[in-house]
Write a structure and sequence with these properties.
The chain is about 60% helix and about 10% strand. The chain contains 21 helices and five strands. The radius of gyration is 27 Å and the shape is globular.
Length: about 575
């Protein structure tokens, strides 16, 4: 697959692209990294990256004893590694282009796919270095002896946002999965005015076929056995009735079941299933970070995590969290080892929350009030929105999902979309030399995007209480979200790193703590509704305590936040010099 993408990239490469064109720079770096990361024909487990270094050691030593100056020998020794290092560095800096190209022209999509494959291959080499053979250890010793160990490109992974996906072979589409909180079974009304309703026999037969399809794909039948059904609509003419059922018992996962029946003539309504029309299409997109539903109804977006730090080895605590997120994302896919546990946890939490909703809603109201502590002027943010929203939630049939959907919408509009907008703006500023101008342009783009998010929210049909509460969250967190984004972008845009306020640090700490809670829960599944109730209470009380007291009372979180701030401050000079070169 990789070789095919590489050939397509070379074939479609514009001949007149300027050297300074960002896409051209990224493409060249990818081709360089790809050429240095191919498997050796002699040993599928050996990589050219390490065998190349070993060969260079030999060549350098031979050259030295033949009388070549030592500095020339060293230069030759590191020639291939320097190319690789520069390629890795460039890909990290231009990573936003890869995200943009995922939704671009066919050629851009092809380049994005090639980029992700190349990054995966490089990261595999980095992981493999943990199990080095004697020759590779000898090479590493020589790098260390020459004082060049830190310049080895194979020491640094290309850390990118965690995104794992799954889809069945029958599914040819690439659109993102849609979240459904319950199963809905509806006949497909191809001709709305034709009078034909599904019979109980057809509904039961479709359900039986659906269970068979789930078993054939090694998926749990529990998701359909416990799901509610809604049947409405009219079937098409010509004696054909079509069914479609969407199932999702986990955020980010969607399973679609379809099938048709042919009606037979006569007074008695009889039908036969058209076997070839019964299909299962499964999609899942996981990041390893919890949806608000998967904690206690509240969670920030994983978009607040740094997208692609240039020196992940310099932030070991963050690096370990990222590794765990990768592990969780894979394990949460439909056939992953934690998929069933996550679904059971979610089911237990929904039942426990809705049974004891008054107590949990009161805790959520306390949390909403505690949010104000991150501002230097908390009294300015006192309003009736939280009280009205949680009062209305108490009257709903599913208060847990209602609360989670409010935080999900806030995340989508004011975190995810804003980060995407900022990175697109960052790409457009590659040619701008002045770092202060770049920072001002990014800040302006954020303000404009935030205002558009407010306009978009006000046009939506959700309840006025829900919209007012989301606006309350947006007003409180606007400055902190910007600070965290600017801290991340300072490394690649070359301006002074943003110094975080205490409120900013609390939000960053809450983000890391939410992942830790989720990771512990899915690896130690809840066993009862009582345990789920205790877990919900702890999740909310921990969040309230963090916003009330700050990060000083949680040493591990304080250490992690300090590590991140120290890292970005140390990166200031290198980022600036790179952009000016």
């Amino acid at each position: 697959m990789k070789e095919k993408n590489e050939q397509s990239i070379l074939k479609d490469r514009p001949k007149d692209s300027p050297v300074s064109d960002p896409a051209q720079v990224l493409e060249s770096a990818l081709l360089a990294l790809s050429s240095l990361s191919k498997e050796s024909p002699q040993d599928k487990n050996a990589f050219q990256g390490s065998s190349m270094a070993i060969r260079e050691v030999k060549d350098a030593v031979v050259s030295f004893f033949k009388g070549k100056p030592f500095d020339v020998c060293v230069r030759d020794f590191f020639s291939g590694s320097n190319i690789l290092l520069e390629a890795v560095e460039t890909i990290k800096r231009y990573y936003p282009l890869i995200e943009k190209f995922k939704e671009g022209t066919p050629r851009e999509k092809n380049l994005a796919a090639f980029a992700l494959e190349t990054i995966q291959k490089h990261n595999k080499i980095v992981e493999r270095r943990r199990h080095m053979n004697f020759a590779e250890k000898a090479t590493g010793f020589i790098f260390k002896t020459l004082g060049m160990e830190k310049k080895r490109p194979l020491d640094s992974k290309i850390i990118i946002p965690v995104q794992t996906s799954f889809q069945t072979k029958e599914d040819k589409e690439s659109s993102p999965a849609t979240l459904f909180t319950k199963s809905v079974l509806t006949p497909i009304a191809e001709e709305p005015h034709s009078a034909s309703s599904p019979t109980k026999s057809e509904r039961d037969m479709f359900r039986m076929k659906a269970i068979m399809l789930l078993k054939q794909h090694n998926l749990s039948v529990k998701m359909i056995e416990g799901a509610s059904e809604e049947v409405a609509g009219e079937g098409p003419s010509e004696g054909i009735i079509s069914f479609r059922q969407f199932i999702s018992t986990l955020p980010g996962e969607e399973i679609e079941l379809t099938g048709q029946f042919k009606r037979l003539g006569g007074k008695v309504k009889r039908s036969i299933p058209l076997i070839e029309t019964f299909r299962l299409q499964a999609k899942s997109h996981q990041t390893g970070f919890p949806h608000p539903l998967q904690l206690a109804g509240f969670a920030f977006s994983d978009s607040l995590f740094p997208a692609c730090p240039l020196r992940p080895e310099a932030i070991p605590d963050f690096y370990r969290i990222h590794k765990k997120m990768e592990e969780a994302a894979v394990a949460l896919l439909p056939k992953g080892r934690l998929n069933e546990a996550a679904k059971e946890n979610l089911c237990l939490k929904i039942n426990a929350f809705n049974e004891g909703k008054d107590d949990y809603i009161e805790l959520h109201l306390l949390l909403a009030t505690a949010f104000r502590k991150i501002r230097t002027d908390p009294s300015s943010y006192v309003n009736e929105a939280p009280g009205l929203f949680f009062s209305s939630v108490g009257r709903s049939k599913d208060p847990f999902s209602e609360i989670a959907s409010a935080y999900e919408r806030f995340n989508d509009l004011f975190i995810k979309e804003q980060k995407k907008r900022l990175y697109e703006k960052h790409i457009s500023l590659f040619s701008v030399a002045d770092s202060r101008e770049r920072k001002e342009a990014l800040t302006k783009a954020y303000r404009e995007g935030f205002y558009k998010g407010i306009e978009k929210l006000n046009e939506e049909s959700s309840s006025s209480e829900k919209r007012a509460y989301i606006l309350y969250l947006a007003a409180l967190f606007e400055e902190s979200i910007l600070s965290l984004f600017l801290q991340e972008l300072s490394e690649v845009a070359g301006f002074d790193p943003q110094l975080l306020s205490e409120g900013d640090r609390i939000i960053q700490a809450a983000l890391f703590n939410q992942f830790d809670q989720f990771y512990q829960e899915i690896n130690n599944p809840l066993k009862s509704k009582q345990e789920a109730a205790h877990c919900l209470e702890n999740n909310l009380k921990e969040a309230i305590d963090l916003f009330e007291r700050g990060i000083n009372g949680t040493p591990p979180l304080a250490k992690l936040i300090q590590e991140m701030e120290t890292y970005y401050l140390s990166r200031k000079g290198e980022a600036t010099s790179h952009l000016q070169s």
